[in-house]
């Protein structure tokens, strides 16, 4: 029987779609070599994105009760999606997840979208990298917001990326080395003459080579580093290693709600640990678990917490505990053993620089403390994920104005407010 050489156009279209649908992800993701080259990124090398020895599973079957635990189990190779010899250590996974927390928020939201439509997803893929992500999701037939897909894609992408010369020059790996492999090599070591923990090294390396955001080096260590430590402590139940940007101790547990307490370190990280990031109208006496633990410790040491029947739910108790526990000013309020706002303002006037009233908010610095009649609050500055530039709490003698520490609504430029700053 003779077969006609004329194949119907409809059949050709079906065959084309079938062949196209079975192409690997990397073949569908448009490669922007000019973009990669100009940014010193050796992205899709020979052989494409997906090396057989580095392939991850589909990422569709994730283990965990929430996004954070699912991401952790994926990166640690605990859910079977990664080859065991390609899984990250606890410290490395925490460092990567500190970056995700910064990019996608406290819910580790795979649908997180940057205002203006720039970045998208758990690592805020942007530009050609976002386009590649979307094409890969379309080819795979899954929603681009699917967490399992994003994790699998992140792994494949990182195995195709290389360490830039800039990052290699900072002491992280070798130029042109596989990015994921280099991430697996982040251990405690000294960089630029400064000792760094494995968590810090993993946080900084992942940011500098994979994320490459506009964040300053100090911000990466303080903010993303603090998030990394939160993840590590919450999901391992262990205290953070000595030398970390923020040291955390406390009970072991599955999540931060188990009450791990900050016992020293960065002001910004301690604000995030102790104060709710959103404003809650009074009456609101529900303290963050970390702050609850901190207040109990402060009480046991005879430090001022205020709060009447709700210890710590007090403006002066919060500011005093924040200054002491963060290490920003351990001598604040007579080494935290003074009294209410009257005592605290007296201490500030004797020991700090008075900035006065009617200040220009643009001149305020994190850690500046304000007093108005019977009230005090602290300038937090711009903290991603924190909904105000001030942090405050409120005691209530009438029972109607209780507020646990949170993002505040106070007016920093009011004529009734007097500001003080720690002397240099």
Report on the structure:
The protein is an alpha+beta fold. The protein folds into two domains: 238 residues, Lysozyme (Orthogonal Bundle), CATH 1.10.530.10; 157 residues, endopeptidase fold (from Nostoc punctiforme) (Alpha-Beta Complex), CATH 3.90.1720. 39% of the residues lie in helices and 9% in strands. The strands form three sheets. It has a six-stranded antiparallel beta sheet with strand order 5-10-6-7-8-9, covered by helices on one side. Strands 1-2 form a two-stranded antiparallel ribbon. The relative contact order is 0.08. The N terminus is likely disordered.
Short structural description:
This protein has helices at residues 9-21, 25-28, 33-38, 67-75, 90-104, 128-140, 147-160, 165-169, 179-183, 198-211, 217-236, 267-274, 289-300, 315-326, 332-336, 341-351; strands at 189-191, 194-196, 248-249, 261-262, 353-356, 369-372, 375-379, 390-394, 403-407, 418-421. The protein is α+β, with helices and mostly antiparallel strands and 424 residues long.
């Amino acid at each position: 029987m003779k077969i006609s050489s004329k194949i119907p156009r409809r059949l050709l279209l079906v065959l084309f779609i079938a062949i196209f649908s079975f192409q690997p992800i990397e073949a569908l993701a448009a490669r922007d070599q000019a973009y990669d080259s100009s940014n010193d990124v050796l992205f899709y090398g020979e052989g494409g994105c997906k090396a057989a020895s580095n392939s991850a599973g589909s990422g569709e079957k994730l283990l965990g009760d929430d996004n954070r635990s699912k991401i952790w189990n994926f990166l640690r190779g605990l859910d079977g999606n990664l080859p065991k010899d390609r899984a990250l250590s606890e410290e490395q996974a925490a460092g990567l997840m500190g970056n995700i927390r910064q990019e996608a928020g406290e819910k580790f939201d795979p649908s997180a979208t940057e205002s203006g439509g720039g970045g998208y997803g758990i690592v805020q893929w942007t530009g050609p990298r976002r386009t590649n992500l979307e094409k890969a999701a379309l080819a795979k037939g899954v929603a681009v917001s699917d967490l399992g897909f994003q994790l699998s894609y992140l792994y494949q992408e990182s195995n195709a990326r290389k360490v830039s010369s800039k990052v290699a020059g900072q002491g992280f790996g070798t130029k042109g080395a596989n990015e994921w492999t280099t991430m697996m090599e982040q251990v405690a070591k000294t960089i630029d003459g400064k000792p760094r923990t494995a968590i810090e090294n993993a946080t900084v390396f992942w940011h500098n080579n994979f994320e490459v955001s506009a964040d300053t080096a100090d911000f990466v260590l303080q903010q993303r580093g603090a998030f990394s430590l939160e993840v590590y402590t919450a999901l391992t139940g262990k205290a953070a290693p000595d030398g970390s940007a923020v040291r955390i101790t406390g009970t072991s547990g599955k999540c931060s709600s188990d009450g791990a307490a900050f016992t020293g370190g960065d002001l910004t990280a301690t604000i995030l640990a102790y104060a709710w990031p959103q404003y809650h109208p009074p009456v609101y006496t529900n303290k963050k678990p970390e702050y609850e633990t901190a207040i109990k410790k402060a009480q046991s040491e005879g430090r001022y917490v205020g709060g009447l029947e709700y210890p710590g739910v007090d403006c002066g108790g919060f500011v005093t505990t924040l200054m002491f526990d963060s290490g920003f000013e351990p001598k604040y309020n007579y080494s935290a053993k003074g009294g209410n706002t009257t005592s605290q303002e007296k201490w500030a006037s004797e020991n700090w620089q008075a900035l006065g009233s009617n200040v220009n908010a643009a001149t305020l610095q994190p850690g500046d403390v304000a007093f108005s009649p019977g009230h005090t609050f602290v300038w937090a500055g711009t903290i991603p994920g924190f909904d105000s530039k001030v942090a405050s709490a409120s005691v209530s003698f009438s029972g109607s104005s209780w507020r646990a520490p949170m993002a505040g609504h106070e007016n920093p430029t009011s004529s009734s407010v007097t500001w003080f700053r720690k002397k240099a």
